[in-house]
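Researcher: Checking consistency across runs. Here is RNA-binding transcriptional accessory protein again:
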Amino acid sequence: MDINHFVKIAEELGVKVKQVTDTVELLDGGATVPFISRYRKEVTGSLDEVQVASIRDRVQQLRDLEKRREAILKSIQEQEKLTPELEKKINAAETMAILEDLYLPYKPKRRTKATVAREKGLEPLAILIFEQKSIQLEEEASKYVDEEKEVKSTEEALQGARDIIAEWINENVDVRKKMRELFIEKGEFVSKVIPGKEEEAAKYKDYFDWSEPIKTAPSHRVLAMRRGEKELFLLLDSCPDEQSALALVEKIILTGEANTSVEQVKLAIKDCYKRLLKPSMETEVRLYTKKKAEEEAIKVFAENLRQLLLAAPLGEKSVMAIDPGFRTGCKTVCLGPQGQLLSYDAIFPNEPQKRTAEAGATIRNLVQKHQVEAIAIGNGTASRETESFVKSLGLPKNVIITMVNESGASIYSASNVAREEFPDLDLTVRGAVSIGRRLMDPLAELVKIDAKSIGVGQYQHDVDQSALKNSLDDTVMSCVNGVGVEVNTASKQLLTYVSGLGPVLAQNIVAFRNENGPFKSREEIKKVPRLGDKAYEQAAGFLRIRNANNPLDSSAVHPERYALVEKMAKDLGAKVKDLMTSEELRSKVVLKNYVSETVGLPTLVDIMDELSKPGRDPREVFEVFSFQDGVNEMSDLKVGMKLPGIVTNITKFGAFVDIGVHQDGLVHLSHLADRYISDPSEIVAVNQKVEVTVMEVDIPRKRIGLSMKSDPFGAKPKTKKSDRSDSSRGKEKEAEGDLAAKLAMLQNKFR
């Protein structure tokens, strides 16, 4: 790549050029983002994962731009139309849009009106008119009347000339650049319902007669309008005022005094805008706003997924998991500390069978037999009834009883992964196993499910699926490597996301482990078939081996730094294990004494941090959560109730909260805090435990309005005018709109 590209990326990200060039070299050498950010800090200048990923993505964009530039230059060269001036402009183009504008006049076209006019010999007349000099228009046009060429009148000749001029204007780089800016800065989305579809399109009611600036339209509304249009419920326009657009083109194109030629050019401008320029710009701007909205939606999804994956794990405990139900009963499984299935059964404590005595005896026996330490109950159908039943059994107080979000469990139970693991078990039993394992280790279990099926996204089916997958894969990889993976117990799916591995090596590790027994050291991992030095370098620091002979094998210290740690211990007259267990010994290590050409203070600080808590899980400690007793259905809700809840999903317009009534409620953006906020993530995170106030209950439509304000029914908090800009006051005014009306729109769209 050209050094100018590295300079450009450095300026965009606010980093040094050397940081960019060195990071790109590592990426091109096959290093992963987690590995670079964790183990190559001296090389990158301590860039974090977000910065490294941004460099990777921007480099790919620029390489795609260069590839397109080369193809365009080659195409124009082959047409023998490449001038030094044009080549200079093409090489200077910094965006794909400008590049395509420059190429437009030379791009192979289908047969157009201008093409037909040229075939009729009208281009000289177009050139004459486009000079905008005073001419005898009728006289000049009459020279091109030719029956053989199917030009039957002067008006036909003039029309053909205008068709050619319209194409020239459409291909004018300056016109397209300014028009693109006008569409984005001054354009508006205008949405109307298709006549006759009002009832069928009820969920898009807010967009039946809607308009808002393109520049400020939030991502969720852009995607909602596009979906309504795609489903043939809405008509969507996205243009600026026509007079403003025509004035802009005239300012660029018109050069002469008012005369007959200028009038013809004005007619060509109007035709160009309506027939060529407007459709082209509208398509571009729609793609631009769609991409922008998709990026925002994908960002929201990725952040929600990160929070869900990094939820606090219960850890290695004996767990009973119950997938609740009514008619079909509750599938009940018991899992060992490593997640292994010990037993499965079905109990019927709920309607219609109501075999409570039998179900109670079964649960008590299983708790005693398997020394159950926690009971996980899926939050689906019959969950609250089942929870109440289990809590009524008088089980030992040390047995944790908690609800688990089972979103996506059915996807797992029918997947190839589940069939491979439990080929002889019923789908519902597999689902119960997944619920139990989610309690023990959410990350390890959720990686087995397609992230799009977990239910923490916003319009995930409307966005670019490739971009979504790449972002979610990045997120999963970041979480897996951030936590670390116990190589002797990890599933193939979990190992797949370890830096440097992938599906094939993950399968090979599991196969080797099954055949040869547990790995006793990180060094032994090198024996896995097809796992070469490069893959080992990338993966080793993220793989853990509990109770290994070398205590560093259970830590995040990379094997390439073992010798350094051993030297630290030796210099203190101690062993590595002593260094890991004694804070007093670690305090005696003078880090600057161990700085070298390849190891700097950032790595040394990381090593010392890891020695103080080797292999410790970075996730939060698990806390038991319970819903409000006696509030099991929507009919139990009353306006004004204060209830505990768990955030299940975050969107740009608010947060959905599970309050234990089988229907999540919406805390609109305007009710997340006492102050104005522009982004829900400022206040809440997925899996966060919150207290909410019930604001509205609509049982027929299954809608619940909630608030997290301290006084949701009181006066709005006072804010000095000087504290807020006009735009923020406008946003606040919009956000404080009628909650019930917004619920109807937002929950329908989201669901």
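Researcher: Does this match what you'd expect to see?
Model: One thing to look at in this run: The longest helix spans residues 260-309.
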